[in-house]
Fold each of these.
Amino acid sequence: MNYYESKDLNRFAEVGKFKPELMNKFFDYYGEATNTDGALSKREKALIALAISHFKQCPYCIDAYTTASLEAGANPDQMTEAIHVAASMAAGMTLVHGVQMLNNLEKRGA
Amino acid sequence: MAETALHLVPNNKYDFNKKLRESDIDLPPLSIDTLQVNVTLNCNQACLHCHVDASPKRTEQMSRETIDKCLEILSDNPQIKTLDITGGAPELNPHFNYFVIETRKLGKHVTVRHNLTVTIDGDPVTGESKIYLPKFYAENEVEVISSLPYYQEYFTDKQRGKRVFQKSIDSLRMLNKVGYGIEHGKLILDLVYNPVGAFLPASQVSLEKDFKKELWKNFQIRFNNLYTITNMPIHRFKEQLERQGTYEDYMDKLINAFNPAAAEGVMCRSLLSVSYDGKIYDCDFNQMLETQVFNGKPMTVFNFDFQKLIEREITFDTHCFGCTAGAGSSCGGAISE
């Protein structure tokens, strides 16, 4: 038994066992936001979700959005570019805090 | 002991007939528009997903006598408008050209499931060149339907073998050169996409747009329509899923994506499938599983009876979930998109 079991993703809806009205609202919103062609195509949305899945390191989401990207017609080049966007954003977010460090260095006369 | 006994218990987990009953769907035959004839299991390729298990090692061929019988059926039954020739690589049957020419003389539409690379590779057994094929197809106004799993090399070669993508591109250029693929033209060239693994096809409309854009941009290739087809969980593809431990996941995916609208349009309602030895089936997949029409009293092209066939009960099984998932899947692509 691990904390993450891939089969548990299929049980996502069970979170609505209590207060189902809240979960139903979430699923409606989630489906509308991620699984429809709008100003962004379903493929673009799947690639964004794939990037976020990696950024937040959610194993369920990585499984789900690898498949969703393929089923939206994406290819491994596009999927890999998407996770590089996530990775470089993560690196950028770390590095941009270097300005805080510089500010502090300055305050301390270093 | 208990483990052995488990094999005796019928597995109803993937019961397609039950699903139809629960959904209140009845699927009798609507017509017989198309005679789909598998003329050989021999192929110059051995693709990962191939439900026919075709390869250069297969030797099964339809005889001239059986082909003549198919021609007689086409001639005697005006309701059958189209001959759809498939294989293996159908061009590796020695009577293939004869079959096409004689069917065209009957005024019927002919479609050929052409794998593209046979034009370049030739016959893997005799070494006979097949470079004449594009011209032959154009002269006989054959509708060419060709598999191209993706507009890039990676997915295509992964599924169909090394160098298949490049050979397919060369072959497509030859077809374009003789006039295939022009919008509103007479010579129709369709491409078939099927997923490279255990996932459902993307939207046919959106993929067709991508294929047209990318194939034109990178190779100046044009074609008419893209058909998306779901991989059937039988034979070689099923074995692959079982090796990967993903068969159950794939079946669950197909069942969860069951679409009643796609079920209404399944191809077995308007098509008959004939095997190389002349036996008749509801579809190509039933053929490969050797599930003949009229279980117990099979029909062949030698005792063909149109009336009995139009009144038959179609045999459904687990694999039929492949044709009814999502937008559906048929030899003519998505059903309900």
Amino acid sequence: MRFIRLSLRQAEYNLVAYTRSARTVIFGVLMPVGFLALFNSVFGGKFKTIPVDGHNISTIAFYTGGLTTYGVMLGTFTGILVAIVGAREAGWLKRFRGTPMPSGVFLAGEILYLFVTSLGLIIVMLAVSHFGYHLSLRADAYLAIFCYTVLGVFAFSAMGLALTRLITTSEMAGSVGPFAVVILSFISGVFLAPNLLPQWLLTFSSYLPLQPIVSGMQHAIALSSGSGLVLRPFIVLGIWGVVSFVIAQFNFTWEPQRQ
Amino acid sequence: MANVIEVEGLTKRFGSLVAVNDVSFTVERGEIFGLLGKNGAGKTTTVEILEGYQSPDEGRVQVLGVDPKKGGGAWKDRVGLVLQDSDFDPSHTVTETVKLFAGFFSHPKSVAETLELVGLSDKANVRIGRLSGGQRRRVDVALGIIGSPELLFLDEPTTGFDPSARREFWTMLEGLRTAGTSILLTTHYMEEAQHLCDRIAILAAGRIVAEGTSTSLIALAGTTTVRFDAVGALDVEALSRETGIAFRVEGDVVSATLEHVQSDLLRLLQHVERAGHELDGLEVVRPTLDDVFLDVTGERT
């Protein structure tokens, strides 16, 4: 009980910082929304549908699903990297370590907070698509989107966590994170239709942690029947997430690394 | 248990450097104990071992009856920390930050009372990013005492304070001691140690070179000195001969160590009075902890 209570307080503390930072609001919300408007106006008129993993998906569903997932990964993966490296290098983690706070609370608070901001982003993106581009969702789709979000936040934050040991400054964290996410997005059917990419690159990216969940989100938003949930993203991202957590277990440190 | 800290034969090495070398001391409940030394003397390493951040290579360490490395949540609940440097999220206010920490402890002080104690009441709703260096240091101290600790570690807490802030800070620590908190303080300000600490250990190159109350340490540094300005008419050699006091001349200043302060001074003054001299810049100086420090660390040339 105490663990949950402290984690909620920690998440609330993080949310306060989020709302007070122009950087997080711009990169976390305005950028994905801006991309949605931009890509949709460039390609929306040219293509009615875009083929993804064997289904034709409407262009707005393609971009809503892809850019939302991109935003979630950018916010979560980069967010945890910057938060943990920043707190560690400032001596903040070390300071927490010296209090009776259970050691998992800091991480739980981060993940909880990233989950809330991810859900917030999804609501904004769906609202923009609905009111701006006439996208309507079936009731089933919401459950699928929710499940994919839980999966994404878990896997992406675990990956960020596993990388914290390699990154020694928060400036470095702030550039490595977005760089990795943008590169990955180009080969995962976020900005570009997958059929523009060579087959080998498509196959390769289907084992990386972004393409399967992007495809899942796009199908959940576009499909006219069924739950919209498929197993593959849970397997691929599940493995990435669990392996990352195991790595983080071994290499995580509370002490500043820059001497 | 009377001792809140017991350290016996503590040694810590970093590669070939022996940072802490066979250090032993105890801190009694309710006292302010000072670890005094220059940068690199081993103060922070010693304190970080007591706080549980580092492991000793040799020796036995007990803090509140527990090996700090094995100290769990219940132990940390009784200990307050002010580390040498930690930073806070600049976007939160002082109150928000202190409140977050209050939630970690089982018997926290009230936030308002804590801010009052560290002199930050008027900054309660100011964001940390807008505070000065000294004010941020006070936030650090607030986070150290918010949990009503039995034992408080302060690692160079007043670095960056102006003199009046330092005085206020001392008054606050004396208040905590009165309320029963035991305090281990590291500092490189002699004046701070002399003013605050019930007992002091002086560290140099990882070893304790002197230990005791500030009065007993000062007694180590020998006796009182008399000083006055050298003027042409005064024959210092004759003065030494006739008073039996060994005067030295260093530049423009004549000085001597006094064995028997009262009678020596009387002889000196009677002599100069008879000879019709005026002594300019006359001073009688008791040794300070500075002198002891320079003596025991072998820094005096």
Amino acid sequence: MKSIFALLIFVSLLFSDATIEVIKKVDSLPSLAVEDSSIEYSDTFKLKFYKALIADLNVISIFNVDRHHRQVEFTQNRVDVANKDMNYVLRYSLSKGDNNALFVKIKLLQNDKEVLYKRYKIGRDNVYMFISHAIAYDINEFMGMPSVEWMKRKVIFSRIIAPMKSEIVISDYTLAYQHIAVKGGFNIFPKWANKRQNSFYYTSLDGKKPTLKYVDISRGVSRSLMSSDGMMICSDVSEDGRKLLLTEAPDGQPDIYIYDTVTHNSKRVTKYSGIDVNGQFMGDDSIVFVSNRMGYPNIFSKTIDGSDVKQMVFYGKSNAACSSNGEYIVYKSRESSNAFLKNTFNLHLISTKTNFIRRLTAVGVNEFPRFSRDSDAILFIKNYKGQSSIGIIRVNHNKNYLFPLKYGKVQSMDW
Amino acid sequence: MKSIVFSSVAAALLIFSGCSTKKPAVDEKESQTKVQEVAPVQTETISSENSSVTGYSNGNSISGSGHKTISELEEELTSVYFDFDKFSIRSNMQSTLSTDASIVKSEASNYSVKLEGNCDEWGSDEYNFALGLKRAQSVKKALIAEGVTPSSITMVSYGESNPICHEKTQECWSKSRRVDFKLLP
């Protein structure tokens, strides 16, 4: 009896570790069909909304989503005959309000019974994708699954449109909504300044020296914070938004600094004659970062006040970028020095508490990983066959999704 | 030249009104069903971007004060090239650097020198920018060793963002692993 109990504990521990790859068969997921009851909008708009909703429902990864666009009257609870064998049917109706407002009502049906009903409203129908995200979020909540709060967050990224010319764009996680926040010049490495996502930092390379700038979106204020010869990048922002990890390079020597936005005090955290960059907070008093102190880029950690440096990754010849969240570190690793192979850079996930390594991507150049705050998802940049995309990895569902850019190349991003 | 466009929309976007569960009236009549099969959902490629970019100008012309203009002097300064993932000066670049240093000390002595480090397209992360910067630092040290005044030199890295060719070839990538010289008044 004791041994069975011990085995159960071992199995439950095993499956709570995100570095263990859990293969779920698609067929084992409950089926979900989506029925459209909209009357007022054009077929083009209806189909656009339908596709956005199907995409969101796929990304939450808890259903096997049917892709047939069926139009059914809203009020009755009987599902379309073609959907009678579905475990769930989501029915929605779009309607127009004043000044292009969009109203949406939904109901979730199970065995011809309504189990969820909700209504939504948004000021302009051209930002319909946010309602689609909200519907998927609410259905995920209703199903009792771990939160997909990250679905509602905004992504900020730098898009290279020509050599040394870029624009900083705010978007939803699917890139369906895009708003150019900074245009003109060469501006890179945007980073949200707080959880509310109402302000951000970025690096401007237009002046004599790289300059860190701060933009308060809600007040419409932009100001230069500081400059450094060579490099000035905001790599990470603390949970409370007060402290920044910066890569600065006075005298051309890139090192990591911590900056207090209230006291304006700055302190050097790493001291190495080579390259130390990409600092990421790991808890309150430690960081992980990228350094070439072993002759090639790899991932290390240290306490902010101490001097001892600990190697964190023991796999890969060139690990040049990382993101951390709690016990987990996701990092970019070069698979081959032959750039003509199709898999050159892949993302890997490790836990600081186990020795497991999980490879998260398979082909292309995969870089710039960024954890969601709850570690449930990882956003990353993928460049493959001349196409630049933002990808999302559902760590606990073993699924990846890509949202391609139509032009330009994503240089860096945050969410 | 640069304008910052603030999104008043962004804040409003996230204001949804999700209302509480409400039982709708039940209509017993037979439903009117329309079926249209859409293309298979490509969960690997969801494309819906529709933003556009407006053009802008980048006025950056400077005229020299000596016999040669800044652009003429910059053309005489030869870029320094590096090996893959390295920032040490190659032996075959030493003579190039000596020539560059003599131009900086003589004809271009009235200008500051901006060293621009660049990398190939192997990654847009901070490490690649740092690699470009370390290349610029190596050139700076070599210039100082040749007698150039340290305070006249500034450095910046553009990472992979300033390629001079776009072919997926070793030759093109090796051209991108370089430090360029720019002169500032």
